[in-house]
């Protein structure tokens, strides 16, 4: 059980090995980018529960998991439940046993490691204690027993365990960590008894403590039911089965913070609101009927924006050139699904500002990105292919937005023509180059057919190159294996990125190569999913299939719902004619879907090459048209 797991809700999360160990500086209990607990440990009748006596682990969903141990002759279960502001750990056994619980407190920011002479303000309170460091306080409550006050300060290196399990230095750099143990919680439990410990971000009164303990299973079940309701809007074929979709939707929701209008890039160490990552997966939130959350996240991103555009994350000095076009693209997608024209109006001044910023970078037929202004932010790039594709799509979408209001920005058609003409200059024989002036065969050319409608020759060139040079048995390489810049150990010059695999699957479905699309989705399901982190997908994989990077990355899995509707089914919405348009599906496509177009619910069923809807369907040039 060398895998790990993350439980999370609205920014609160606990990261841990599946064998029960807290074997990394990233393990423990966090609230957004602040850590509070390095570990907790239970000693039963003198023996610690650990990897030495764990028997099984089961993750029910992103909020609830169970560890089973055998200590001596005592079988004991440990339930872990993650809620908005607290984590509840419940120890239970059919046998009678004595238990001592130890908590390793370590309140720190994500970028901090060991701090000499670090001390806490410790206060014993009813049913627990609280530990305060600077402006952060951890409250620890227990359901029964007593607390033996005996504070001990020390340091440790939890990452040694991760290294022993084959995790790389990129996962844990073996830096020392502060450890503060305030004392020991002691309890003697009768047969069938249990001990619950709550790790909370806020003070809780006694009735709230026991209310939280007693309601945790119901809340977890309600969350499971919510996932089920979303899944019920899909019918299942051989590609997107219910089990996979449940995990996809659970994953997607687990990266969200609904009250704070955020999407986290990944856990445990991308526990920040990265605007680019959020914008790539917002269409999926819209797709699974969470449009209000998507709207609020876009508003939050706008609130972070300034004269230089949209920052990579709050407080960042980096203003990428892909975030602004992505927001425009997402905004139109939001309107097409919801019909909410007020949202378009509210962002109108910012859209004009983004065009102004873009025009300052427009030279001839190209957008001049430079340095580390793209998703490949570990290397300097210039005139990048995906930046051209994103801005071209954004300008086309902005033109549609303008026409919704019966107006037209005279600048846009000329910009669109320039950018479209510029795409041809990236062609290098059998592929499109990564950059205008640097000949690299990278996966970034996939952005062109994913976001744009281009001619058949260009589509065929890109998809043939995908099959021959970019696709492996573990997914899509960031750079082709036969390119001179390819490095199998490189982060972005050779690694497999599941988010690129998702884009590749979308391209295959869009271009009606369903066999290729299915093949890539199967790779994601069978070779990427659950590889190192339970029910999640890593940020990257080495070409040999070894998982690396952030173990639970949002966009590695979060684009799937969007790809189902807009690429696999191929839904397009004509806002001026109020029509939903679908290309004639292949004869072997069996699938059903309840979706939303311009605020109207539409039921679709695909079977044996036929489509049935609750609304009348007409046909025109192999296209199915539904008036909405």
TrEMBL record:
**Any idea where the Glycogen debranching enzyme C-terminal domain is?**
257-560
- Annotated GO biological process: carbohydrate metabolic process
Which SUPFAM superfamilies has this protein been placed in?
Answer: Six-hairpin glycosidases
Q: What Pfam families would the database entry show?
A: GDE_C
Do you know which Gene3D superfamilies this protein is assigned to?
Answer: 1.50.10.10
Judging by the UniProt lineage, the source's domain of life is Archaea
**Signal peptide positions (record):** none
Name of the molecule in the record: Glycogen debranching enzyme C-terminal domain-containing protein
């Amino acid at each position: 059980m060398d895998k790990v797991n993350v439980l999370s809700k609205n920014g609160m999360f606990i990261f841990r090995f599946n064998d029960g160990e807290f074997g990394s500086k990233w393990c423990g209990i966090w609230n957004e980018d602040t850590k509070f607990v390095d570990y907790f440990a239970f000693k039963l009748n003198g023996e610690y529960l650990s990897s030495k006596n764990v028997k099984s682990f089961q993750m029910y969903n992103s909020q609830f998991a169970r560890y089973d141990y055998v200590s001596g002759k005592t079988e004991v279960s440990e339930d872990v439940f993650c809620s908005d502001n607290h984590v509840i750990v419940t120890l239970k056994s059919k046998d009678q046993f004595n238990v001592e619980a130890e908590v390793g407190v370590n309140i720190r920011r994500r970028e901090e490691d060991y701090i000499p002479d670090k001390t806490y303000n410790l206060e014993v309170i009813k049913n627990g204690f609280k530990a305060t460091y600077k402006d952060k306080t951890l409250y620890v409550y227990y359901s029964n027993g007593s607390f033996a006050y005996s504070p001990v300060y020390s340091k440790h290196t939890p990452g040694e365990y991760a290294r022993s399990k084959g995790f790389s230095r990129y996962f844990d750099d073996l830096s020392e960590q502060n450890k503060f143990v305030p004392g020991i919680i002691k309890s003697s439990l009768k047969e069938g008894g249990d001990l619950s410990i709550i790790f909370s971000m806020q003070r809780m009164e006694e009735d709230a403590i026991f209310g939280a303990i007693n309601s945790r299973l119901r809340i977890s079940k309600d969350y499971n039911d919510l996932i089920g309701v979303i899944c019920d809007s899909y019918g299942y074929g051989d590609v997107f089965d219910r089990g996979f979709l449940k995990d996809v939707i659970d994953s997607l929701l687990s990266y969200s913070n609904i009250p704070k209008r955020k999407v986290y890039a990944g856990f445990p160490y991308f526990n920040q609101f990265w605007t680019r990552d959020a914008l790539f997966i917002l269409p999926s939130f819209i797709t699974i009927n969470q449009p209000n959350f998507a709207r609020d996240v876009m508003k939050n991103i706008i609130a972070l924006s300034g004269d230089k555009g949209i920052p990579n994350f709050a407080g960042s000095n980096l203003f990428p050139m892909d975030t602004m076009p992505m927001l425009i693209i997402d905004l139109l997608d939001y309107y097409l699904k919801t019909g909410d024209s007020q949202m378009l109006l509210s962002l109108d001044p910012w859209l004009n500002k983004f065009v102004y910023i873009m025009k300052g970078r427009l030279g001839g037929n190209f957008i001049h990105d430079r340095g580390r202004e793209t998703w490949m932010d570990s290397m300097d790039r210039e005139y990048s292919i995906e930046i051209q594709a994103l801005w071209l799509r954004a300008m086309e979408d902005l033109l549609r937005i303008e026409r919704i209001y019966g107006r037209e920005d005279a600048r846009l058609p000329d910009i669109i023509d320039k950018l479209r003409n510029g795409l041809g200059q990236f062609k290098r024989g059998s592929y499109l180059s990564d950059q205008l002036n640097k000949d690299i065969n990278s996966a970034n050319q996939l952005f062109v057919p994913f976001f744009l409608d281009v001619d058949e020759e260009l589509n065929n060139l890109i998809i043939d190159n995908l099959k021959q040079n970019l696709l492996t048995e573990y997914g899509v390489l960031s750079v082709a294996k036969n390119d001179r810049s390819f490095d199998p150990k490189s982060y972005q010059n050779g690694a497999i990125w599941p988010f690129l695999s998702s884009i590749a699957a979308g391209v295959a479905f869009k271009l009606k190569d369903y066999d290729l699309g299915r093949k890539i989705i199967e790779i994601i399901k069978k070779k990427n999913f659950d590889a190192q982190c339970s029910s999640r997908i890593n940020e990257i994989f080495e070409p040999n299939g070894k998982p690396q990077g952030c173990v639970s990355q949002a966009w590695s899995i979060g684009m799937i719902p969007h790809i189902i509707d807009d690429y696999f089914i191929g839904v397009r919405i004509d806002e001026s004619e109020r029509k939903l348009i679908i290309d004639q599906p292949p004869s072997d496509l069996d699938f059903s879907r309840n979706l939303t177009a311009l605020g109207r619910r539409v039921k679709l069923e695909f079977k044996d090459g036929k489509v049935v809807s609750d609304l009348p369907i007409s046909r025109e040039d192999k296209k199915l048209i539904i008036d909405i």
